[in-house]
Design a protein that fits this description.
Layout: H1 12-15, H2 24-47, H3 57-70, E1 73-78, E2 87-91, H4 98-105, E3 109-113, H5 122-128, E4 132-134, H6 142-154, E5 158-161, H7 179-187, E6 191-200, H8 217-226, E7 230-236, H9 248-260
Parallel strand pairs: 1-7, 2-5, 2-6, 3-4, 3-5
Antiparallel strand pairs: 6-7
Length: about 280
């Protein structure tokens, strides 16, 4: 176990609610077909000669929204990220949907586990899009990764990270790991916390989009495409400046409170991480 390999108690059997009705299969097929068409269109742009040039951010944001919408998930975004300059975007992590949702806020280089590089289609797109792949079982690689992120931030680009290091079901959340915040401190770059929540109808939280534990990507794709009335709420919280925070622990704590919607306490500490029983509530 390393600093890159935190564990969440969430599992599909324990946390993820069942979905589906009489027309769920037909709905899922149509939605997944639409997603495939959009992915192929994106691949065509990336691989075309024009794709060697920088794709406009506005087009990337629209394409990412279309991907999520094609899967049957409505998108509501409140707030906005700085359109340019070095920026570390951090968010709680529930689903594979989180990645295009954050790219719809601001296109950025994404910090991703190395296993994603082997995913069909998505792995190639992530690599071509500049993803920073982490070998999470190699703690010795951590300083080099932090240094690489700091260089990107100093160059005026954005980096997206999910500091929980693991997906949670959405009813509970994990603590933010501190390492990535050292890069923001080293580069003097602001941190933009983002809170992601999924709802279905009147439910405060829907766990149908959760991609947790031993869940597989095909199973998660099918579950999302089969569901009815899913909405992704993306709340872009105010920027957290790196300068006023004495170290990465303090910076991570401030960003975690914003992304999890937890109040700031008198001593600046976040509340305790949710217990395992909270995931099944």
């Amino acid at each position: 176990m390393s600093g890159w390999l935190p564990a969440a108690p969430c599992t599909p059997a324990r946390c993820v609610e069942p979905v589906g009705d009489a027309v769920a299969a037909a709905r899922a097929v149509l939605r997944l077909t639409a997603v495939a068409v959009l992915l192929l269109a994106g691949i065509a742009v990336v691989l075309a000669p024009l794709g060697r040039r920088r794709v406009p951010d506005a087009l990337v944001r629209r394409w990412c929204r279309w991907i999520v919408r094609a899967a049957g998930v409505r998108v509501r975004v409140t707030g906005a990220a700085a359109p340019e300059g070095g920026l570390l975007l951090v968010a709680n992590h529930v689903s594979w949907l989180d990645v295009p949702l954050l790219a719809a806020v601001r296109p950025a280089r994404t910090l991703a586990k190395s296993e994603i590089r082997r995913w069909p289609v998505a792995g190639a797109l992530a690599a071509r899009g500049g993803a920073l792949f982490i070998e999470r079982d190699r703690l010795r690689a951590l300083p080099d990764t932090v240094a690489a992120i700091a260089r990107i931030l100093r160059a005026g680009a954005a980096v997206t990270a999910f500091p929980e290091g693991s997906t949670w079901c959405g009813r509970a959340a994990g603590p933010f790991r501190r390492a990535v915040f050292q890069a923001a401190l080293d580069a003097g770059a602001p941190v933009q916390p983002v809170r992601i929540r999924y709802r279905a109808g009147q439910r405060a939280v829907s766990t149908a989009p959760a991609f947790v534990g031993a869940d597989t990507l095909p199973a998660s794709l099918w579950r999302v495409a089969s569901a009815r009335g899913l909405t992704a709420e993306v709340e872009v919280r105010p920027v957290v400046r790196a300068g006023p925070h004495r170290d990465r622990r303090a910076l991570a704590g401030a960003a975690e409170r914003a992304a999890h919607g937890r109040p700031h306490t008198a001593h600046g500490h976040q509340g305790k991480a949710p217990s395992k029983s909270m995931c099944a509530l």
